[in-house]
Amino acid sequence: MAMSTSYRLAPELKRLLAERAAREQISETALVTRFLEEGLKTSAYPGIAYRNGPTGRRAALVVGPDVWEVVLAVRHAPGRGEAKVRDAAKQLGLPEGQIRLAVDFAAAYPQEVEDRIALNDAAAERAREVAQQRARLIAS
Hints:
The chain is built from six helices and two strands, in the order H-H-E-E-H-H-H-H.
């Protein structure tokens, strides 16, 4: 159950919040909640930011790909332990520290990252189905 808490905002901040919420077609409460959740996470993991994308907002390296993409690169890298980090860094053209940052974030928020991987898998499957249907239509 959500707890109710009140805060006083400066009029200009309140105006900006209301404008942004209207633009995104969400409530001000939902927008404040999102900003607080994302802000708390990114302040604990400097170098991580949230971006909008076709499957929604997702955590990403400020200087690179989405966290879920780094996690998949590490999972598919050969070897074990630090060898996987080195291989993923080489594959993605990133410093090893950036790979570790993404892995650390994923370890702290595993469900968020797994959900994003699942959304990406579903989007890729839909794209394959559309491409196959398009090919069938063109072939006939």
